[in-house]
Amino acid sequence: MAHTTKENRDIYYRKAKEEGFRARSAYKLLQIFESFHILYPKLDEESALSILLNSSCSYCEHNINKNDFIAKIFSSDHTKQNCCFTGADSDSELDDYSELGLVDYVKIKRNCLELGRIKNVVDLCSAPGSWSQLLSKMVHEDYETLKNACKKLQTQQEVCKNLVEYVNIKPVIVAIDIQQMAPIEGVRFLKGDITDPEILKEVLQLFIENVSRNINQAYGGEYDEKLRRNAQLITCDGAPDISGLHETDSFLQSYLIKSALSVCFSLLDPDGCFICKTFFSSENTPIFTQVSSFFDYCTIFKPSASRSSSFEHFIVAVGYKPFGHILNTPKSQEIDDEREIDSELKEIIKAAGKVISWD
């Protein structure tokens, strides 16, 4: 009998080899997306048309009549809008997630300049790059589907110019790591420390240049501030060198989470998502309280692709609020004494240029 290694017996290791991912960890992120309806299920043509037809702004309300086309969409069986945070498969799931702000229906109007799609992503501690590979694949597929739907709609009716501009702006996937990473198609890699302000400035400049380049190519126009977007999703699969001592590893990892959270303060758009590795399994920890203070919904999740022998879990946070929810923290997470709020986190926020009331 041929020798069988432990890796070859691992289904996710084999799948990664077969599907071209650099590491099995890509399936951890995929399972997070599937469980929390982030970029999942994949956008289809009918969903894309629903999103486009139910967008509006001051320009199209005065110049474009969409009623006939909207009626056609509403008359179909497709009653849910597949946006970056949606995708529940049953009415009960819809009810559960609607309270968390994870579900939107087709009838909900969106601004033509903000369709709720994930276009810009920052992958922290990205090497060797399996998460960046998956992010690039899913975000670019979403972009192509929406763009093709917009082209089809343009053959049937006049489409708002703001909507066309938004749809045609290409995604930007930025990977950051202090170690070198092999190139990935559709991903811009920056080598450096995620806490380096110069790296963060470079990421912001990439977002601005992307808008300018796309508008110039399509219309010969110049950069328009109204089209500017930061990141809608920030991920971090990084971890310190493992010592084997759980308490020590968890403590060191908490500082990495703080660093990733500080990137959110600088780069994440309001209502954006944050996914980060942790070695805590309980929500009753200071670092979880700090992260959840800035998001509408936050939990700890262990995907099945993560080995059962590993302590790793993932913080999944949805609905970023730049000014936080310090004053509206649930009773189970109340902070009775201001001194319990980590003073280092305050300094991180100040350094990011955010003004937050801690009173």
From TrEMBL:
Keywords in alphabetical order: Methyltransferase, S-adenosyl-L-methionine, Transferase
Biological-process GO terms, alphabetical: cytoplasmic translation; tRNA methylation
GO cellular component: cytoplasm
Cytoplasm in keyword set: no
Top-level taxon of origin: Eukaryota
Residues that span the membrane, as ranges: none
Domain Ribosomal RNA methyltransferase FtsJ per the UniProt entry, residue ranges: 117-320
UniProt-recorded Gene Ontology molecular function terms: tRNA methyltransferase activity
Record keyword Endoplasmic reticulum present: no
Pfam family, one: FtsJ
Stored PANTHER family: RIBOSOMAL RNA METHYLTRANSFERASE, TRNA (CYTIDINE(32)_GUANOSINE(34)-2'-O)-METHYLTRANSFERASE-RELATED
The protein's name: Ribosomal RNA methyltransferase (FtsJ homologue), putative
Source organism: Theileria annulata
Taxonomic lineage: Eukaryota, Sar, Alveolata, Apicomplexa, Aconoidasida
